[in-house]
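Quick one:
INPUT:
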């Protein structure tokens, strides 16, 4: 790979999160706690959806896939963040840096499409309830999941092809705690203004466009329901509020990181942490504590576990 792009840089130095030992121990505790919550919470949703036949509908299949993506997205950065806390020199190899960027954007692209698929699912369920089972059948659901992965790979591969062929000859300090295309491109030994615009268009404008599309679609759903009944409106708003929260938490940082023309290190860190830690952590809470079917499924699964234990 190094011979292909003419790079002499074999590793990058990451900025890291904190320098003082006290802050490092505090962050270590928080990151371990949050990462365990991310893995256990999202894994719990996947297990419930897989083993409870009552949840084998398109809404929960998409939710289980979203949980899988959240675990993957968090796992691309958080373990590295934890290991780097007490490293004197936070070094990542050239190949690992490129792989991290590639998988971050695959997961991000897949999640983007999954959120759109979930919005379409809610639109069909609320606005076309009589045709819901026909439109959102299992075949259509898995087709949307496959499409999400295809778009995610294309989205990441399109940017990766440009960056992997850039010449890197120093400096090699990445101004973040993880590798990402805009930060790494600035280290190339050439003018990357046009490539930076391509990356911004690919990640930033697509994120911004998708975000506004989703918000408009939710508003359209609420307006459509409002024309029928104010009671249905309150139910629809309660259902959609969880989706809107997830959309804002996911797309808000993405838009800032890739579109905002005046980036700062501190804000970059904060928004990246929201995408990699808080959103994957809050998704299980949002979709389980606010969802009646998930609560019933959790109770049913616990009762089955207790009864099977009593039999043994």
């Amino acid at each position: 790979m190094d011979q292909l792009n003419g790079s002499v840089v074999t590793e990058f130095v990451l900025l890291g999160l904190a320098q003082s030992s006290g802050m490092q121990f505090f962050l270590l505790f928080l990151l371990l706690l949050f990462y365990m919550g991310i893995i256990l919470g999202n894994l719990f949703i996947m297990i419930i959806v897989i083993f409870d036949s009552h949840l084998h509908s398109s809404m929960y299949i998409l939710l289980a896939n979203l949980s899988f993506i959240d675990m993957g997205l968090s796992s691309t950065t958080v373990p590295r963040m934890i290991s780097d806390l007490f490293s004197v020199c936070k070094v990542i190899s050239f190949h690992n840096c490129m792989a991290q960027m590639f998988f971050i954007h695959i997961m991000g692209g897949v999640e983007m499409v999954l959120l759109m698929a979930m919005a379409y699912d809610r639109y069909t369920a609320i606005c076309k309830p009589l045709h819901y089972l026909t439109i959102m059948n299992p075949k259509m659901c898995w087709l949307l999941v496959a499409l999400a992965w295809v778009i995610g790979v294309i989205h990441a591969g399109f940017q990766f092809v440009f960056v992997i062929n850039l010449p890197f000859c120093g400096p090699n300090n990445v101004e973040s705690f993880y590798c990402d295309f805009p930060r790494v491109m600035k280290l190339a030994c050439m003018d990357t203004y046009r490539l930076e615009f391509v990356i911004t268009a690919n990640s930033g404008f697509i994120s911004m466009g998708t975000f506004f599309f989703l918000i408009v679609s939710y508003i359209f759903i609420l307006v459509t329901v409002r024309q029928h009944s104010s009671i249905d409106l309150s139910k629809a708003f309660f259902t959609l509020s969880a989706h809107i929260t997830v959309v804002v938490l996911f797309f808000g940082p993405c838009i800032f990181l890739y579109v905002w023309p005046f980036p700062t290190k501190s804000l970059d860190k904060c928004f990246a942490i929201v995408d990699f830690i808080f959103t994957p952590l809050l998704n299980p809470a949002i979709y389980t504590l606010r969802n009646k079917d998930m609560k019933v499924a959790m109770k049913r699964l616990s009762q089955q576990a207790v009864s099977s234990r009593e039999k043994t």
